[in-house]
Design a protein that fits this description.
Two copies of one chain form a homodimer.
Chain A lengths: L14 H23 L26 H18 L2 E6 L5 H11 L1 H5 L7 H10 L27 H9 L5 E8 L6 H6 L13 E8 L15 H10 L3 E6 L3 H27 L11 E6 L9 E2 L2 E2 L18 H12 L15 H4 L42 E4 H15 L6 E5 L17 E2 L11 E2 L4 E3 L3 H13 L3 E7 L7 H15 L10 E6 L17 H5 L7 E4 L4 H12 L5 E5 L4 E4 L3 H10 L1 E3 L14 E6 L1 H17 L5 E6 L17 H8 L5 E5 L4 H7 L8 E4 L10 H7 L4 H11 L3 H4 L1 H21 L4 H4 L6
Parallel strand pairs in A: 1-2, 2-3, 3-5, 4-5, 9-12, 9-13, 10-11, 13-14, 14-16, 15-16, 19-20, 19-21, 21-22
Antiparallel strand pairs in A: 6-7, 8-17, 18-20
Helix pairs in contact in A: 1-2, 1-3, 1-5, 1-9, 2-3, 2-9, 6-13, 12-16, 16-17, 18-22, 22-24
Chain lengths: 796, 796
């Protein structure tokens, strides 16, 4: 902040300035209405005719004038104090306002030159909105200055905090709608203030915009008294400042003074902390509660029904303008009430004195590089994975906890990127539980509430973000990535479903962003799903669900990757690879418990680069022709059980020719036309054969494997075992038995599927079945797995 | 409440009563520790030996003593005032406490007689906990008195309010953990007070249990000052009462007095409202903030590290009791500190004076029928669907909005069940938008904040629950169903993903409940997903996602059903059917826009009962042999496009033999071994042929159809089209074109797949391609679909 804040008297917006900001606001409102309604005649230079009006009126007015009001006032303070500021538009349907404002400030036409700053450009601006081949009605990737899609509500504030972390000069103005404020994720997001450090982070200025109504209802917060609102937000730890009213000039003066006060308070807090203040509690940041009418400045009444300041203004306040002359008259009067001739010059360009109100260059919120984070992104420095390699002399000889090894690698990423302060680890209170605890050798959990003498691994400057809300973790991380940084999210596998919908929306954001050349790539969002379905020993059924990847596999192929690495070294390769990618969502599934290690680092690298490979060391097929059976596996536990099954088969039926195939890049199972990583058909056919039985042990729901491979030649011979929703709190091996994914079931299935073998090997099947019975008895008596299972080792 | 509350002086718990309640609490704590640790020697009648201790210690102590403390005090007030009360245990790992308390009060042994009230039973009680074949470590369906699984956090309070609605005599004590309090859904749930009517509903008494720590972190709310907490909960609209401390007897006295005060306040509010009070604002209900140490009464320190009152007590406070004599000593001292000999008699039964503290019969929280809602459930009265039938003289001749018709049916369900007050409609502010508005002819949206003169369809006694939180809608509905009532949830299709994880957990609850004979069936949870992917005209990509059903299809077959009815009459049958089922989750997908109607009611009934059927009226195959192609469809828009494609094919290539198959019960596509509704293989083969091409137009992601049919004979000839994530704000028909699900693409695909036809019909393909081009030009110029598409009618 180059220009200091006055600390003496409250700021007063003089009349001339109020007049100007009001005209600017009117210009934005005019352009917003125009987008919703007009095909032509953008400046109303002739009377409005039916053919000027869009045949389908699709858009939302209600929230827009308030958003425009805020934008105009933020412009003023950006100029006054030379602020680095971005605008997050929480209200879902604020698209027309965001587009209008970026058009007014010039950033829109810079990105989309065909939407020029003249009459022809304004006509295009209007026409394209909610029109086939045009732009959506929300703030979206297409909208300059946006890092937040306004479709699904609830994530504005979490995105805002994510953007503010580690960016000390940034102010994120975040408008929260009162509809959105009813959602769970938003209600929890207010507590983000407990994780923001005034010394090293930027700041979020929340603006709760109460316009009182949703689609067809009052809002819960809109009908609360000021007293309750003040209590609520004081309780959340803020200092709420109220701006309420409907009379424009009073509101301009009130908003300007309140914004100045908020910025002054922010500045004071930052100065205090940056000059060595070390309060043992969170600062009380300001926030603004703005009460303004829904559909402000729009038609007061249509067909005798109240519209302004009511939910009827939510969408298109006056609907039949093409057919109904009275409605058209209401629209025309409404648009002319903004006096477009006072706003735009004869060429249709915003008048000079109004243009002068917008910030310039990268200070414009539509051109601020923070909202196109790829522009600011620095490559993440990563250490050599070989430095963390688990020594594996021969397959299965070593035991290790995969995620624990990964924790060491993550620790060193934190170290290597310390000076850039652009990497954080996110997770809901589970970093340690997920065995990534090595990161605490070099950093803490960030915590801004009281820290007590006996607390451990807790600090003001921690780079591990833990809060018991998957929504917050995901939202913060998205905001952090979208503003050009890097991160890593570890989560219990089952509970990642909590953010299914956020994942969906982020995938959509990426899909659209990648189609926009001006949007620069951002770092991928990488999940580690651990504490997975097969090892819920002390949690049970409620914690078992491996279905997140099914959702992921629905998304556009070039956006998503799914990796279930079989051991620690392959996990290292996968994590390292994922962290170096951009514009993707990577899902890694790996266990945290001690498990046998199969691949030395060199082999792991080769295996992971291939994505799917035959494990020759585990196979006993001859060099010529095809094996009798392919034992395929994906995921750490299924890999172990498959190898144990192969061990059983080789001992019991040595003449059997077995091929072992391991899958580490799950989407490589798809054909290449479906996914860029898809194995070519001929390679797939050679690997999985075209006619031999394939017994596939898979980590998750078995259907996914069928769905990925249905186009493959040998699909009819593919027999998949996975999680079939059996088992609760029990031993690790018993979980696999209950779901029939264990070594005995796999071996029996192989024998049953090989033509003619079942008759010859009936005694083997009998012996294996007896083992299953023995297991059942043992585990129920002793509460742990029988020694021959626990102590099993691969020894071929 | 039969015994009135004293209104004069604060309640004082006398010393004798405090001594008794303390012993009761100790007994529960003793049994909780025993469950976590002991295999044998349950009453410590000999010194603790390694073999008495479980080999794998899996359980959670930290939250348990607080839960036991609350339970003991709730028992006291239930007896004192003859209260109808249930206990919702929000903290995830409170299982040992809930089990211990239901065992102490006798309800556990009534349900599970083998866990008897003697030494042998106690030994079983201990052994079964977190043990293979035993019970999970959470409150779960297996736990008497529970309607809430303690696995995934966030839904306790929403469940509690759902249970309280329409049950005026019920008090739902809901313990919210401070970990859970950080989640989004819980943070939003506090606002449920704005939807609870003191005159007709019961009440929730929230008890925020701040024990300060999660797995490895302080909690956000635990570290907040009392002042901030008071502000926060006052802001939410409550009157927070604080109980804080660690000294047991002071805490007993404080808790008893506070509970009395809370109940008195509740009583006063209820009396006021039930005697005609009509305040234009919510009452300020009491809530309790209980601060007590995590791991209270457990080991203070282990291996020199602080355990009690810190996160180290979260799970198993002292871990190596089998191997390490010192640890075993800590455990033994800890258990003996409760003085089991003062608690249990020589037979291992709770001493008589302590037994007398528990309520009796159905007043015991473990035996209260509200927590086994099927016991209280009355059948829903439903009108005859024929009364709402859309007249369909011939297929396609009529147009109707399916959900609008359904709204009339729902309206009359509301009327028919008015006197039982056991049916509500839930949705996030979308009942009207989803065209179910007819319900407002007979009821309102319930609203307990201020109602203004110009508000419409808003009232204190409304039976439509609207809040902009899918989490709250789902949580309330679950609580309502679990306590024996009925409901209906309508939601935008894309945003139902917000509750993916809640759906998962409810499906798990049902799966386990169905295995427990004592749990009586509850009504099914029925979703209507509308405003679906194909008609997001003014929303666009962010609102497009038909993938919820993919998640649903992962669940146990006997729990889930998925229906995409093709028109209004079939929607009526499906909804009526779903509302009469129990212990299931039904997903109905149907559009809200005007669409052609295909089936008269009689035909719709026949079709829906079959689940999948050949539409003879749309087919032109001869009577003998197989058609050239099967045109299959599922969902309203795909059905329309399929019929339009068939129309094109029949006009262009009249000699082509076409069969039309429509699917209304999606899971019938699976084989019968996979799903009880699965079509038998021979029927399927006759319907879909064994070798002819099948062009399948499906509502959602095409993979689901492959996954459901991969075992079917003709799977290799199945070509599925569906949503492939293309399109944003555009016209309805353009959406289908962008995803290649439109009539032209379908017709071209059929021609291409019929052996030998492509060469002969190249000119037809060319004509169809030209139509696609024409469409593209038209829609981009006019912003609406070309007349020949808009006006198309089935006329065969």
């Amino acid at each position: 902040m180059r220009k200091p804040y006055s600390r003496s008297a409250p700021f007063v917006l003089d009349d001339a300035a109020a007049e100007l900001v009001d005209r600017y606001w009117r210009a934005a409102n005019y352009l917003s209405v125009g987008q919703i309604y007009l095909l032509d005649n953008p400046l109303l230079r002739e009377p409005l005719k039916p053919e000027h009006i869009k045949p389908r009126l699709l858009g939302h007015w209600g929230t827009t004038p308030g958003l425009n009001f805020i934008y105009a006032h933020l412009n003023r303070v950006i100029r006054a104090h030379d602020l680095e500021m971005i605008y997050i538009c929480g209200p879902g349907h604020g698209g027309p306002g965001m587009v209008a404002n970026t058009y007014l400030e010039g950033s829109y036409s810079e990105i989309y030159p065909e939407v020029s700053e003249d009459v022809a450009g304004m006509r295009k601006l209007f026409r394209q909105f909610s029109f086939p081949g045009g732009i959506p009605s929300h703030a979206a990737p297409e909208t300059p200055g946006s890092i937040h899609e306004g479709g699904e509500l609830g994530y504005a504030l979490a995105h805002a905090f994510g953007a503010a972390f580690d960016d000390p000069d940034l102010i994120v103005a975040c408008v929260v709608g009162d509809g959105e404020a009813e959602t769970g994720p938003l209600a929890a997001s207010w507590h983000s203030n407990k994780f923001l450090n005034p010394a090293r982070d930027g700041v979020v200025l929340p603006i709760l915009h109460l316009n009182g109504y949703k689609i067809a209802n009052p809002t819960v917060l809109g009908r609360m008294s000021d007293e309750d609102l003040r209590s609520l937000f004081s309780g959340y730890g803020y200092d709420p400042l109220f701006v309420e009213g409907a009379e424009p000039f009073a509101m301009h003066r009130h908003m300007a003074a309140t914004l100045e006060q908020a910025l002054q308070d922010i500045h004071a807090i930052q100065q205090h902390w940056r000059n060595g203040g070390t309060d043992n509690t969170c600062p009380r940041w300001p926030m603004i509660v703005l009460r303004s009418p829904k559909g402000w400045t729009g038609p007061k009444e249509v067909d005798g029904k109240m519209v302004e300041n009511f939910w009827r203004s939510h969408q298109v306040p006056v609907a039949n303008c093409r057919e109904d002359g009275n409605h058209r008259k209401i629209l025309e009067d409404w648009m002319r009430s903004y006096a477009p001739e006072e706003l735009f010059d004869e060429n249709g360009r915003l008048k000079q004195e109004l243009r002068a109100l917008a910030p310039v260059g990268a200070r414009r919120m539509g051109a601020n590089p923070h909202a196109n984070g790829g522009l600011l992104r620095r490559e993440l420095k990563t250490p050599a994975i070989e430095d963390y390699a688990v020594a594996v002399e021969r397959p299965g000889a070593t035991t290790a906890q995969s995620t624990k090894i990964l924790g060491q690698y993550l620790r060193d990423i934190l170290l290597l990127n310390q000076s850039h302060a652009n990497f954080r680890v996110f997770g809901p209170d589970e970093t340690e539980s997920n065995r990534l605890g090595s990161v605490f050798e070099v950093t803490d959990r960030v915590w801004m509430e009281e820290i007590r003498p006996y607390d451990v691994q807790l600090g003001r400057n921690g780079r591990v973000m833990e809060v018991l809300s998957e929504h917050l973790c995901q939202g913060w991380l998205e905001g952090y990535l979208l503003t050009g940084r890097h991160g890593f999210f570890s989560c219990y596998e089952a509970f990642i479903h909590i953010v299914d919908s956020m994942f969906n929306q982020h995938a959509k954001w990426l899909k659209v962003s990648r189609e926009l050349a001006w949007r620069r790539p951002i770092s991928s969002l990488t999940y580690l799903l651990t504490s997975h379905v097969w090892r819920q020993d002390h949690n049970g059924f409620s914690h078992q669900d491996p279905g997140f990847v099914d959702l992921v596999a629905n998304k556009k192929a070039d956006i998503v990757r799914i990796y279930p690495p079989p051991d620690a070294n392959s996990l290292l390769w996968v994590a390292d690879h994922c962290l170096k990618t951009y514009d993707r969502i990577n899902v890694i599934v790996a266990g945290k418990q001690p498990e046998p290690q199969w691949l030395a680092m060199e082999e792991a690298v080769r295996h992971c680069e291939a994505g799917i490979a035959i494990w020759k060391w585990a196979s006993n097929e001859g060099n010529s022709g095809e094996p009798d059976v392919v034992m395929a596996c994906a995921g750490d536990v299924p890999t172990m059980e498959t190898l144990a099954a192969v061990d059983l088969l080789r001992r019991h039926i040595p003449e059997l020719q077995i091929r072992v195939v391991n899958v580490v890049d799950l989407l490589a199972l798809q054909s290449r036309e479906q996914h860029p990583h898809g194995l070519p058909d001929d390679v797939f056919d050679r690997m999985f054969t075209t006619a031999r039985p394939v017994i596939f042990a898979y980590h998750g729901y078995p259907y996914l494997i069928h769905r990925l491979t249905y186009k493959r030649t040998n699909h009819d011979n593919l027999h998949v075992r996975g999680f079939i929703e059996e088992g609760t709190t029990t031993t690790p091996f018993d979980m696999t038995v209950l779901n029939e994914l264990d070594r005995y079931h796999l071996a029996i299935e192989a024998i049953s599927r090989i033509p003619g073998l079942l008759e010859k090997a009936a005694h083997v099947v009998e012996a294996l079945r007896a083992k299953l019975d023995e297991h059942g008895r043992y585990v129920r008596e002793h509460g742990e797995d029988m020694p021959e299972v626990r102590d099993w080792k691969w020894e071929h």
